[in-house]
Design a protein that fits this description.
Length: about 130
């Protein structure tokens, strides 16, 4: 797996309809015999605000942060900035797009991308002429 070029935070080269910075979330990538597992840090992003797409070999992850303060708490100090998250990866393995699983817990998005089973060997007949 290789990573596609990503612009710096807030420098996407395109007009944004939201007035918030765009961050490149840190990611850890693990490989097992049958899957790739990606962990992306995306604090303040709810499951319904995450879009994950696989177009051919390019995996795109976009999340929209909300910056919500928990009920009953008063904000005393802020280090997490409000903003959106974008990251793209070019996959070297063939992935089973129908089997991709995604979940988010405690601000960490976990993506499990199962590898496709290799096609069985096929005999090709040769015709004269």
């Amino acid at each position: 797996m290789t990573e596609s070029h990503q612009p710096a935070a807030g420098d996407t080269g395109a007009e944004s309809t939201r007035n918030v910075p765009v961050f490149r979330p840190p990611a850890d990538i693990y490989e097992t015999a049958d899957a790739l597992v990606l962990l992306l840090e995306m604090p303040s992003v709810a499951p319904e605000d995450i879009d994950v797409t696989l177009d051919k070999r390019v995996l795109n992850v976009v999340g929209r942060g909300r910056g919500v303060t928990p009920e009953g708490y008063a904000l005393a100090h802020v280090e997490y900035r409000d903003g959106d998250y974008e990251r793209s990866f070019t996959l070297s393995e063939t992935i089973d797009a129908d089997g991709i699983e995604a979940s988010i817990k405690d601000g960490v998005l976990t993506l499990r991308l199962p590898k496709s089973q290799p096609a069985p060997a096929k005999s090709i007949s040769v015709k004269p002429g």
